[in-house]
Amino acid sequence: MIVRKSTKPSGNAKASAMQNGHAIGTRWARAGMAGLIAAGLAGCINVAAPDKPIVIELNINIRQEVIYRLAEDAAATIEENADIF
Amino acid sequence: MGRLSEMMKLRNIAISGAAAALALGAFASPVMAQRDPAYAAARSAGQIGEKMDGYIGIVGAENADLRRLVNDINIKRRAVYAEQAQQNNVTLEEYAFSAGCQLIMKTVPGEKYQAPGGAWETRTSAPPQRDSRCP
């Protein structure tokens, strides 16, 4: 019941607004339709595949400050395991 | 007299023992740290290159022996990276990448490395092309 009461006035307001601007509204609507038709005829959207290969950046999750902080430690690790580096 | 010569003998044994231990120590550590001959040969031949991610890759045509060699090294590297990453509280990828920066820097002229664009480059006497995140 409460819901109905609250929706009715707004519905009426909308209707009255439509009646007031009826003549202008239809004119705009016609212009809009014509525009849409023209756009539909003229504007073809072309989707072309890129000619260059798509490169996926895999190192996005690498933090630069971490790389700087690790430099000394990584150098020591390389020295200690020289057989695999 | 007999006692003195016995002592001398004992001292000689001790000296020779120490010398042997010293020689063994000096000899053993570089052998442990050396690259496998097949790995060293593939590196200098440019069949294997250092990648940006801290691992090695096959540069030209792939074959079973080369693939086995590369996988073996990379698995060992990964194990080391994983352990060190955990100790430093960083991700495996970050540690490996950090090592990769240095490994590319350490390549010698003639060896292959991966440039930031992803292409293989031959190291010259000039500094290598590295990722902008490298220190």
Describe the structure in your own words.
The complex is a heterodimer of chains A (85) and B (135). Chain A is built from three helices and no strands. Chain A is mainly α and 85 residues long. By secondary structure, chain B is an alpha+beta fold. Chain B is built from four helices and four strands. Chain B has a four-stranded mixed beta sheet. Chain B is extended, with a radius of gyration of 23 Å. About 4% of the residues of chain B have low confidence. The interface between A and B is medium-sized, with 23 and 30 residues.
Topology readout:
The complex is a heterodimer of chains A (85) and B (135).
Chain A: H1 2-20, H2 22-42, H3 64-80
Chain B: H1 2-33, H2 37-44, E1 48-50, E2 56-58, H3 64-88, H4 92-105, E3 112-114, E4 120-122
Parallel strand pairs in B: 1-3
Antiparallel strand pairs in B: 1-2, 3-4
Question: How would you briefly describe this protein structure?
Answer:
The complex is a heterodimer of chains A (85) and B (135). Chain A is an all-alpha fold. Chain A has three helices and no strands.
Biggest protein-protein contact in the assembly: A-B, 23 and 30 residues
Strand order, main sheet of chain B: write it out: 2-1-3-4
Major sheet of chain B: 4 strands, mixed
- The shape of chain A is elongated
The residue fraction in helices of chain B comes out at 55-70%
Report how far the terminal alpha carbons of chain A are from each other: 79 Å
Number of helices of chain A: 3
Mean pLDDT across the residues of chain B is 85
The quaternary state of the protein chains shown equals heterodimer
Largest sheet of chain A: none
Radius of gyration of chain A: 33 Å
Query: How much of the residues of chain A is beta strand, in percent?
Result: under 5%
